[in-house]
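Quick one, tokens below. Sequence please?
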């Protein structure tokens, strides 16, 4: 993997972010690679919105994997924007939900690259809240600023629908049935769910590194949270 400073995508000037990124550049993180999981995005055109199996998998009440990995889900309609939800496990209410300022088509293109880094930077300087309790975030994808997002206090109906369907799913990617199985002008409801290693750098910086279930080498997906100083 190229170093942080040699990456053509990285343009942020934040020391906390650089510290977290150096960890990925300086270590071989095989368990965080996502070759098998990310390749599933190429199957989207082959899947249908009638994923009954997902609804069936949503019925168990006990976690299938008993460890401290964090669950992350990125989902949205093909012609709409994608949302990010972070949970301690698939059966808990999310600790963090926001709609990213990215359309699903643009996000899927980024997923085709070897390294995908989503960075969220809060410009709040009071430090009275925990990092993930901040509301306003500048969003970067592979070093390019794509806009701003506001963390939701309450989930939308579509977000609640997705998390209910996936409450028994630990990892996977595909297409979900929409609410009430109605067709929408925004296209299929796509999702990717994975387990992440959560690394707390300080009270102002955290990172999530995707855990690849098969351990195969491949692309990496990382999500960074940083609060300005």
């Amino acid at each position: 993997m190229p170093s942080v400073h040699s990456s053509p995508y990285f343009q942020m000037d934040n020391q906390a972010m650089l510290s977290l990124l150096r960890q990925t550049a300086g270590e071989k993180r095989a368990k965080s690679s996502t070759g098998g999981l990310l390749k599933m995005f190429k199957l989207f055109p082959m899947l249908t919105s009638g994923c009954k199996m997902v609804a069936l998998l949503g019925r168990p009440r006990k976690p299938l994997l008993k460890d401290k990995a964090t669950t992350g889900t990125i989902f949205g309609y093909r012609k709409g924007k994608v949302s990010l939800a972070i949970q301690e496990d698939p059966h808990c209410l999310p600790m963090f939900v926001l709609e990213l300022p990215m359309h699903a088509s643009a996000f899927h293109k980024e997923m085709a690259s070897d390294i995908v880094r989503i960075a969220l930077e809060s410009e709040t300087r009071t430090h009275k809240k925990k990092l993930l309790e901040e509301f306003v975030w500048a969003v970067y994808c592979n070093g390019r600023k794509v806009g701003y997002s506001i963390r939701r206090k309450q989930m939308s109906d579509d977000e609640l629908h997705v998390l209910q369907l996936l409450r028994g799913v630990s990892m996977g990617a595909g297409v979900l049935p929409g609410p009430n199985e109605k067709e929408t002008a925004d296209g299929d409801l796509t999702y990717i769910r994975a387990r992440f290693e959560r690394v707390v750098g300080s009270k102002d910086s955290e990172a999530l590194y995707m855990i690849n279930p098969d351990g195969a080498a491949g692309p990496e997906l990382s999500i960074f949270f940083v609060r300005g100083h």
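The longest helix spans residues 15-26. Helices lie at 15-26, 35-38, 52-57, 104-111, 157-165.
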